[in-house]
Amino acid sequence: MEKENISKTGEGNRESFRDRIATVDESGKRKWVFAQKPKGKLYNIRTYVSWSFFLLFFSLPFIEVNGQPLFLFNVVKAKFILFGKVFWPQDFFIFGLGMLTFIVFIVLFTAAFGRLFCGWVCPQTIFMEMFFRKIEYFIEGDAAQQKMLAKAPWTGSKIFKKVSKHIIFYICSFIIANFFLSYIIGVKELWKIITEPVTQHIGGFLSLAVFSGVFYAVYAFFREQVCTVICPYGRLQGVLLDKNSMIVAYDYQRGEPRGKFNKKVERIQGDCIDCFQCVKVCPTGIDIRNGTQMECVGCTACIDACNAIMDKINKPLGLIRYASELGIEKKEKLQYTGRMKLYTVLLGVLVTVLAFLLVTRKEVDTTIMRTPGMLYQERGTDSVSNLYNIKVANKTTNSIPLQLKLENVSGQIEIIGGHSVQVKEQGEGTGSFFIVLPRSIIHERKTLLKIGIYSNNKKIDVISTNFLGPVQ
Ligand code: SF4
Ligand code: SF4
Question: Which H, E and C letters describe the chain, residue by residue?
Answer without folding.
Answer: CCCCCHHHCCCCCHHHHHCCCCCECCCCCECCCCCCCCCCHHHHHHHHHHHHHHHHHHHHHHCEECCEECEEEECCCCEEEECCEEECHHHHHHHHHHHHHHHHHHHHHHHHHCCHHHHHCCHHHHHHHHHHHHHHHHHHCCHHHHHHHHHCCCCHHHHHHHHHHHHHHHHHHHHHHHHHHHHHHCHHHHHHHHHCCHHHHHHHHHHHHHHHHHHHHHHHHHCHHHHHHHCHHHHCHHHHCCCCCCEEEECHHHHCCCCCCCCCCCCCCCCCCCCCHHHHCCCCCCCHHHCCCCCCCCCCHHHHHHHHHHHHCCCCCCCEEEECHHHHHCCCCCCCCHHHHHHHHHHHHHHHHHHHHHHCCCCEEEEEEECCCCCCEEECCCEEEEEEEEEEEECCCCCEEEEEEECCCCCEEEECCCCCEEECCCCEEEEEEEEEEEHHHCCCCEEEEEEEEEECCEEEEEEEEEEECCCC
